[in-house]
Amino acid sequence: MNTLEDFINAIPKAELHLHIEGTFEPELMFEIAVRNKRKLNYQTVEELKLAYDFNNLQEFLDIYYSGADVLIEEQDFYDLTWAYLQKIHAQHVLHTELFFDPQTHSSRAVPFSKVISGIHRALEDGREKLGISYRLILSILRHLSEESAFQTLQEALEYKGWITAIGLDSSENGHPPSKFERVFALAREEGFLTVAHAGEEGPPEYVWEALNILHVSRIDHGNRSLEDPELVAELVSRNMPLTICPLSNLKLKVVRDRINHPIADMLEKGMMATVNSDDPAYFGGYLNENFLEVARALSLSREQIVQLAKNSFTASFLDPDEKRKMMEKIDRFYQLNPV
Ligand code: HPA
Ligand code: ZN
Questions:
Q1: Using CB atoms within 10 A of its CB, is residue 71 exposed (0-12), middle (13-18) or buried (19+)?
Q2: Which among 16, 106, 157, 241 is least surrounded, fewest beta carbons within 10 Å?
Q3: Nearest ligand, CA of residue 23?
């Protein structure tokens, strides 16, 4: 158990930034496309994988949304989610908080009920059969209108018991968090927590807006916060979690090269940074591969890896008792597996 890979694989950890549509592996995509008699723009799995070469967020999103087009039936959403849960079970991920994008499907006349029922049924099976706890986050597509966001939130109210938080994703530049101030105010009134992607490509100002206008409990990405020392101080004083996605940052060129990934700097500054996989089917790795990437590129110590694993539970929406149990599990693991 002394290699870095083994240590990362076995340490108990949680995932807090994961788009379920971003776990759609090409093989399953082709299988479901055939089942639903839909044509993909690519002839083979290999051809599709060759297209996974992005220069920015938008180039990725175009391919990500077109992949999701073949998801139609409740069973499709079940199969997608179940495949993800099996993957993370093998990686010793004990808890996951995942996003789903209902507007990606409602725009194709796939009803909200089918999307959420398939995902929820798989998550419940994962909890019972694999022992993976979860929270579900409905993410609003920020390139669409406020009206569409309100409509989606309205549909979600019927499934309130299944959804913990409302998030904000998709094309960041030109779509500041303030565009959804009223939607998020209603979401909070209805008892949802809030999170938002901010500072991935967008400026530090968007992170300020997520904090002060959307009243988020976590910032998703938040890399560009480092450009604003006042913002860094604010994030530290609030102990505000940032859900960092190392392989995503490399694939979407948010970070220029691996040794300059900002997560080490964030930890040094006392920020509550966590490691996550974002869209693992598109970015070349699930949670272990993301831990391994930063551990290698930044020569993280075992202590820092333990800190990141602990952060993943601290920053989660688990209740304090559950968090305490997870911390104990990590401490026990580290005692049994010192360097
Ligand atoms: N950023 C914004 N929207 C997204 C992402 C992301 O990294 N992944 C899936 N939708
Ligand atoms: Zn994301």
A1: buried
A2: 157
A3: 1
Concerning whether 200 is annotated as a catalytic residue, the answer is yes
Task: Please tell me if the CB atom of residue 169 comes closer than 6 angstroms to any atom of ligand 1.
Answer: yes
Span 86-94, mean pLDDT?
98
Q: Whole-structure pTM over 0.90, yes or no?
A: yes
Integer Cα distance of 53 and 240 in angstroms: 32
Q: Which residues surround ligand 2, an ion (CB under 5 A)?
A: 278
Residue with the two structure tokens 């609030």: 238
* Nearest in space to 164 (alpha carbons), one of 202, 123, 111: 123
How many angstroms separate the CA atoms of 26 and 44, rounded?
9
The better pLDDT of the pair 131, 258 is held by: 131
Q: Give residue-wise pLDDT tens across range 166-217.
A: 999 999 999 999 999 999 999 999 999 999 999 999 999 999 999 999 999 9
Cβ neighbors of 53 (< 8 A, separation 6 or more) are none
Tokens 């272990």, residue?
288
Reading phi first (left if > 0) and then psi (alpha if -120 to 50, else beta), residue 205 is in alpha
Q: What spacing in Å lies between the alpha carbon of 16 and ligand 2's midpoint?
A: 10
Mean pLDDT, residues 42-56: 95
Ligand sitting nearest the alpha carbon of 54:
1
Instruction: Answer whether 57 contacts ligand 1 (Cβ < 6 A).
Output: yes
Domains of the chain, start order: 4-336 (3.20.20.140)
C-beta of residue 251 within 8 angstroms of C-beta of residue 266 = no
Q: Could you tell me the pLDDT band of residue 1, with boundaries at 50, 70 and 90?
A: low
23 lines ligand 1 (CB under 6 A): no
Give the pLDDT score at 140: 98
Quote the mean pLDDT of the chain. Answer: 97
Any ligand 1 atom below 6 A from CB of 277:
no
Q: List, in sequence order, every beta strand (DSSP E) within the chain.
A: 13-19, 93-100, 133-141, 165-169, 193-198, 218-221, 241-244, 272-275
